[in-house]
Amino acid sequence: MPPVLLPPALTAPPAFTVRDPGYEARTRESFERQGAMRTLGARLVGLQPGFCAIEITPGPALSQQHGYVHAGVIAAIVDSAGGYAGFTLFPSDASVLTVEFKLNLLAPAEGERVVAEGQVLKSGRTLTITRGEVYAERGGKRTLCALMQQTLIAMHGKSDA
Amino acid sequence: MPPVLLPPALTAPPAFTVRDPGYEARTRESFERQGAMRTLGARLVGLQPGFCAIEITPGPALSQQHGYVHAGVIAAIVDSAGGYAGFTLFPSDASVLTVEFKLNLLAPAEGERVVAEGQVLKSGRTLTITRGEVYAERGGKRTLCALMQQTLIAMHGKSDA
Amino acid sequence: MPPVLLPPALTAPPAFTVRDPGYEARTRESFERQGAMRTLGARLVGLQPGFCAIEITPGPALSQQHGYVHAGVIAAIVDSAGGYAGFTLFPSDASVLTVEFKLNLLAPAEGERVVAEGQVLKSGRTLTITRGEVYAERGGKRTLCALMQQTLIAMHGKSDA
Amino acid sequence: MPPVLLPPALTAPPAFTVRDPGYEARTRESFERQGAMRTLGARLVGLQPGFCAIEITPGPALSQQHGYVHAGVIAAIVDSAGGYAGFTLFPSDASVLTVEFKLNLLAPAEGERVVAEGQVLKSGRTLTITRGEVYAERGGKRTLCALMQQTLIAMHGKSDA
After folding, report:
1. Closest C-alpha among B75, B73, B78 to residue B59
2. What ipTM does this complex have?
């Protein structure tokens, strides 16, 4: 599958308001508390306001029955990537919970690295909407293997820590 | 909500293979047979390989209880936009059916024009995956009001006409 | 496709708290204000706390390109059915908005009547989660043709009327 | 949240055709090959034609940042439960892949046991549609904590083993 040209309005620069200048430390600290990410060997490898990238290394411990990365593992890293993309834009006294997400699997995930990227598309006071893409990388080639769309809720007054 | 910078891999030019050079006439003719689009006053206003745009004019006949465009009407035009985006890439002897789609509503849809844009992200032999965005336009300003993710199936050997 | 036995926990009687004894008149009045439902010829044919059914009569005005009911029309009635199922449980000073829904199409919708049933599965203060089923009826036979899962938000202090 | 009464048509007994009498051994053997399920400590605890249940024991290794079971772990077990529910109905020479799924989180997952139940609602030659529910159990009390809707594809002629 070739790369894809998205409509013009989705390619312009972002302009999200960062409500907590300490968003990076706050987000990384929260990620460290996710035992499930540690169990999957997942690493937070990219963080900007409204954006988060999380990678894993494919292997037998993360596989489905044919040896590819399990769809549930793909779901786990792209759910966290979307969730922390949203969390970067939250005030410091709010927690994030996933309301729901939907995941399409486009190609088997295998190779040296699989990376999930979450991007905020709307950051509201209560609800945040994100999209995510998951890529498998092998020998310098990047394959789009999953697409996600997600709804998050901010729990105000419930500090994450 | 500001426009959004998507990851680099999603902004490169598309390279879809057109299997039927007569895709445009075939797609427009199929759209004309959708009585539901006529009932909603929907117009096909953009068509390229892997891309389709459909617009409506907001008004009382398309409204929900507060006067905005009904989420189901948004769903109808973005489902058709995604479906015909996929259909442009089909061979001439195949029909398209929607397997499923998921729609997030981000902002009330109102204004002079509401336009749904569907874009293919993977065109497989059996399944096609698309994303869609719906924008409301008022006084030259464009607001992103819905996001869709969709799965289509190609029915080979069942000509659409 | 045969009918399906769902897990025991989902078949016990409901026990939702009705916060507004006038829920039925309030819900029917809101439905009447949905111009899109009138345009589709949709009728509200069932209403209980946490449940709503909406029917349409298939025909050329609601069709997709092969003559079946358009997936977007299915989406519209099942979105309203789920939304009003949730709305029956709201206090009288709250409005309902659809946050998102996901729809699977299982069989072509055709016949004498198509009915969408929405059922609340969780009614929270802010968010409500529903499921929906859409059936096509022909000659006394009922075919399951779509499944929906939906998130609603209650706008407190914003009376619907 | 109370248990919920679903519409009559969804409560009748199932009548799926089992195409492979050896479905149980075939399904259990495939589950054993899912390294990701082993990593999460997941056990297959229920299997019938069109139905599969998978359980985990909540704990720090499966947690999100607040100590509850991570949404991605919930996703992983309910995706496998739906997938193997569908797989029970496949012929012996077909593999199963998840096309997509959508997950709503309704309540924090914690307690002594979390169990995901997948149920087929339509088993077609190419596509299978399932629904899933995830329950958390503590002290004999069962809480519905997630709802799923899923599309599977059968890869005929590609034996799973």
Report:
1. B73
2. 0.92
